[in-house]
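User: Run a structure prediction on this.
Assistant: Running it now.
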Amino acid sequence: MTQNTFFSIPAVRPLLSAALIASLAAAACTAELPELQLERPAEPRAGERRDTFDAKLDGGARPATERGAGISSDDSDADADADADASPSAEALPDARRDVAAKLGAPSRFLIGLGNDVTAQEGWDPNRAHAYELGPKLDLHYMYLSGLDWPSWSGPDGVYVSDHARAAKARGVVPMFTLYQAAAWGENNLGAFDDATFMTRYWRNVRIMYTRLGAFGAPSVVHLEPDLWGYFQKRHASPSGVRVKVAALVPECADLPDDVAGFGKCLVRLGRSLAPKALIGLSASSFGASTNGKSDPQKIAAYLSTVGADASDLMIVETLDRDAGCFEAATDPLCRRAGSFYWNDSDFRAHLAWAKTIHEQTGKALLWWQMPLGTPSSKAGGAAGRYRDNRVAWLFAHPEEFAAAGGVGAVFGTGAPNQTTVKSDGNQFKNAVTQYYQQPLAF
């Protein structure tokens, strides 16, 4: 494992003061918080993960090993040993974050974004995203492309992508799209990837997405298939162990194998060809591999590097996809997992150590995605739209630790209905971003 001797974070900003953190929590607790009213579209148009909309399509709950998001795993070790010597040299890593920021046309500092924030209440209007009404201008805005029917959202042939990309660019924000098609026939249903009908539609949609972003002609971020790479790796430690239809369906990838490696490499190759200004990232899921009951980031990074991450631009990582309090309350059917979700300092730093290994082994900058927006509280749980969580407060109090782990930025958002949003958090997120911008963390 390469030793981390390459980061030197300049002392350009102090940590958020204890008084500010207290004020954020107090504002969240005392503000009048409106109840969220979410409508259920026929398809997850706002981009929610498929399993949050239709339980019958969920082939199984997300693995318990992901619940710790890089802290621990309950699964026994059934994977082949990763090659610990395959990591890039330390000399190649210091510029990874700056390079990503430069390619995005963004400031050379830790970036902040928001997403999955256009709902039926806004008439699905891209220009009414909560990110654009926040006040302080954000760097990134993400939306989901979920299921196999998303190209028909808002009009034919993927106009949804163009509409959201233009809305972001008009405000000086980089658009980001999370492609989440893999669960259309059931979460963790990997047999679908060897089905010609499924994969014909799958690849057609990928081509539509990239073609739209190519015509957009400005920087964007494409986040490829959260969770899927972890499911693939858990199914078989070798990418060749799971069949995926590639060569016969994608002429540009006729030379690639019909397996996970060919699939991932083809996704990146098509992006390079059709949308050269798009930055592409695969997800690192902590449940992909384990050693002695704990998530093994070296194995995960080694696997990802063989399935396309080596040719990508960045890695996408997560802490938790929903407010901690939602799982603590356990009244929402979409928040039924066992575990400890409201992290303390040790939990955060264990996660950052895990993420740093992903960064070091792949040589890619990290982008934290879908960080929950809940507000701190000493009382567990909460209620719909106002659950407790401390990830906003902790990140803005410790941005230098996320950057030191290889982070280029973090985007916040909801991974299910009924979570805390920037409309119900008592201005916690708005105030934290405003304070951060006064002395941002430069690379």
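The beta strands are 111-115, 140-146, 174-180, 220-224, 278-283, 290-291, 294-295, 314-317, 365-371, 407-413.
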